[in-house]
Amino acid sequence: MISFLRHGIATASESAKRHRWFYEALFWAAIVLAALLFPSQHLLMIEISIIALFALSLDLLLGYAGVVSLGHAAFFGFGAYLAGLLALHGIVREPVLAMLLTGLISGLIGLAASTLVLRGSDLTKIMVTLGLALVFYEIANRLTWLTGGADGMTGIEIAPLLGLFEFDFFGHIGLAYCLVVLFLLFIVARCVVDSPFGWSIKAIRDNPTRASAIGVPTHRRLMAMFALSAAYAGIAGALLTQTTSFVSLSVLHFERSADVLLMLLLGGTGYLYGGLVGAVIFKLLHSWIASLTPEYWQFWIGAFLVAIVLLRRASIRSALASIGERFRPAGHAQGRAR
Amino acid sequence: MTAALETRRLAKHFGGIIATNDVSLTVKHGARHALIGPNGAGKTTLINLLTGVLAPSQGSIHLEGKDITGIGRAARVKLGLARTFQVNSLFAEFTPFETLTMTIGERLGIGSQWWRKLRGRPEIEKEAEDLLETFHLVDVGDRPTKSMAYGKQRLLEIAIAFACKPKVMLLDEPAAGVPESESAEIFQALAALPPDVTVLLIEHDMHLVFRFADRITVMVNGAVFAQGAPDQIARDPRVRAVYLGEDA
Amino acid sequence: MLTILFDGVAYGMVLFILSCGLAVTLGLMNFINLAHGAFAMAGGYFAFLLATRYGVSFFATIPLVFILTAGLGLIIERTLYSHLYGSSHLEQVLFTVGLVLMSIVIADYFMGAQPVSIPLPEILRGQIEIGGVGLGRYRLFLILVCGLLTLGVQLVISNSRFGRQLRAAVDNASVARGVGIRVNRLFALTFAFGCGLAGIGGALGAEIMNIEPTFPFKYMIYFLVIVAVGGTTSLTGPFLAAMLLGIADVARKYYAPSIGTFTIYVLMIATLLVRPNGLLARRS
To answer: Rounded to the nearest 10 degrees, what angle do helices C2-29 and C236-255 cross at?
Structure first.
């Protein structure tokens, strides 16, 4: 079924490329429509938009830069705690300002972290990113005076947005806030991805040797992308804190990193919408399974990861087989020009 | 007069293996300098040293008189040194048009711009189209590189190096793996290189070498074995003995 | 101080035996198996069940655990892992993380959340006096057994036909196939062997590490560090890394228990800064 879907999506995407603007406008219009039609679901929609932004941040890192990260929750959690601290201690009261500041600092942390992560092989990247998230978790766990430790950070009061819009219990203001942020950051991401910088990142992922052979300073560019990705993740974390007035250690759990990877697996990487689509599917999946077996949710996430990877392999293998039939290997005298 | 490219006593050791042995090479401006030698002679290693993929154990490299020994790969490209790879190293998912557009963009220094689109810049796209035409790639210009025939991919390799508008071009066996029927295009492309670009060419195809080169360096076991004008080399009995055999 | 060294070495040896399989699968099949710890956990549980429910003597559980865990590994390899050979590292990570999550819940469901305790025979309890110093009998046993296992593995890899084929396949799988080596069968056997070792490690380590449902996740980073820092070209690198880690962790527990498990991360980062390609890497 998956391969059928993929084929359908592939042909749809051929024509979609030409009518891109139309489909995209449709997508966002649908979101706004959903928000207007289901006012009682706004809290759920806030959750989805936050994890969608988180997934988008990882898509930039994984889908475009090709960096495998097992610990992206580190930046999500960092942003969440930072936003919590900014509000709790009255350092920056206004939420939008706090969110932007959190993004900036998360980006800087990401820049620093990238010097460690971007060395060596995939294995090293996996190890370092996992280790990073674990370290952040440990720090948050132990610095109880700062983070509230295992009990979480309570007593956070979020000031009205821009001094005008007070957050309400139904999530109306919160959803508008999250959606606007998501949309704007999406536009920025789109800009970056289509820019010369974005192209060079895709080139680095495709063939790093070739990229440096045409003069791309690969390490610097990757660091910048990493920082951007961390900033986005941090902002997603900040939105979570600001819309729930609470931060707990769960923002740094390994499961967050695993969840967001599953979202990208479900939605696809490298076209920016993957995270958004994946977030919706994931949340729906989560709600459905949680209603059936709440304690064993972790098992089902694992099972889904396994199943989807296996299905992809099956469809890739058959796709590769058919490609192999159509194109002769290099060096054959009958190489066609067309 | 400064040479376009020069190495001074360049050497590279891998553990106990000496891959490059005291190589002092001078490539004059506008030269068509060929580097030949048996397999394993260290020719590609030399190119890797020149481009910064490998760091030398000893010696120095100078581009237009400037010492580039400690300079990184990307920076050397910016200074005017471009290469092709012996085995195609291309962006599999990009089309030739996209690859060339991107390369030109890097050359023009807009590679780090993140706010404007890459596409839709007429000067760049015109140049890319011209290159596609020069290198007979117009018919495959908008298809992913991985779907192109090998010969076309090889032409793209050279086109990319060209798009860097280098002062010195290092071509590593440009005709390697290309069937007879397609190598004519490669010869044409090489002949069309502008005279002010310096070319250092590794090749096994002796027809190509003697047609193209104005100076030949023979490498054996990582060291320079003989140097001189093509007819000198062709007549040199030592070279014939070690390499040319009966193919001269 | 000597006790720390002694305990650290014992711990390090167990960590090495545990990581052996991962190092070999990574080096051989370029496969990042994050679920490696799940097989170690299985080994620990097998040993527990054998000892408590079936009254098998402790010493006898060791070879039995090897066989059981190797068998489990073989089954899972043939049914699941084999479909992923040639896949990207990302897919391997996603796949094996999925397996880890599943194994954690399965373990919790069948064995409960409490760490299991394997009853030790009299001879391994308490301390023994050697040269005036009291050394834990069990840890001494660990060092001996793991040392023997390490030598055994090294011998098998360097001297046996299996080992030769293995090394050939690591070098170049397609050439190895061309020479008639059944690479897929080799992969399956090696994987099973690695799982068997992990199982023994889990059984032996039950006394000093906690065999509980979250084990595969808790120790994932340890194995990753040992293999990433130690490299996969030979077993010496991981051995040194495991020793370093074992000693550092025990020392940390002793001198600064409040710090928590930071040692491993600090170690990892420090090594990476100095040696981005692992402890013994020579080439960049």
So the answer is: 140
Please list every residue in chain B whose beta carbon sits closer than 8 Å to the beta carbon of residue C283. 14
Long-range pairs for B5-8: beta carbons < 8 A, 24 or more residues apart: B5/B50, B5/B61, B5/B62, B5/B63, B5/B64, B5/B81, B5/B168, B5/B198, B5/B200, B6/B61, B6/B62, B7/B46, B7/B49, B7/B50, B7/B59, B7/B60, B7/B61, B7/B62, B8/B59, B8/B60, B8/B61, B8/B62
Cα distance between residue B248 and residue B12, in whole Å: 31
Give Cα separations from A50 to A213, A284, B62 (angstroms): 39, 15, 54
pTM above 0.80, yes or no: yes
CA distances A214 to A185, A200, A203, B52, B84, Å, are: 30, 10, 10, 13, 10
* Chain A: touching chains (3 or more CB pairs < 8 Å): B, C
Does some domain include residue A4?
yes
Pairing of strands B168-172, B198-202: parallel
**How many Cβ atoms from other residues are within 10 Å of residue C267's Cβ?**
19
Greatest mean pLDDT among A108-112, B68-72, C46-50, C58-62: A108-112
Interface size B-C, in CB pairs within 8 Å, comes to 3
Q: Does C87 touch chain A (CB under 8 A)?
A: yes
Lowest mean pLDDT among A322-331, B53-62, B151-160: A322-331
The answer to whether position A123 is within a domain reads yes
Domain that holds residue C270: 2-274
Q: Which residues contact A272 (CB under 8 A, 6 or more apart)?
A: A56, A59, A186, A189, A190, A193
Task: Provide the mean pLDDT of chain A.
Answer: 87
Indicate whether A49 belongs to any domain: yes
Please state the three-class secondary structure of C87-113 as a single string.
CCHHHHHHHHHHHHHHHHHHHHHHHCC
CATH number of the domain at C20, please: 1.10.3470
Long-range contact list for C59-64, CB < 8 A, 24+ apart? C59/C121, C61/C118, C61/C203, C62/C145, C62/C200, C62/C203, C62/C204
- Whether A334 maps to a domain, the answer reads no
The nearest CA of chain B is from the CA of A146 a distance in Å of: 37
DSSP annotation of A165 reads B
Quickly list DSSP for A239-264: HHHHHHS-B-GGGG-HHHHHHHHHHH
Amino acid identity for residue A275 in this structure: G
Q: d(Cα B204, Cα B173) in Å, to the nearest integer?
A: 7
- CB-side neighbour CA atoms (13 Å) of A20: 7
The size of chain A, in residues, is 338
One domain, residues A238 and A104:
yes
Q: What is the CA radius of gyration of chain B?
A: 18
For residue B181, the model assigns a pLDDT of 75
**Concatenated DSSP letters for B12-36?**
EEETTEEEEEEEEEEE-TT-EEEEE
Cα-based distances in Å from B243 to A213, B235, B239, C272: 31, 12, 6, 46
CB contact under 8 A, B113 and A197: yes
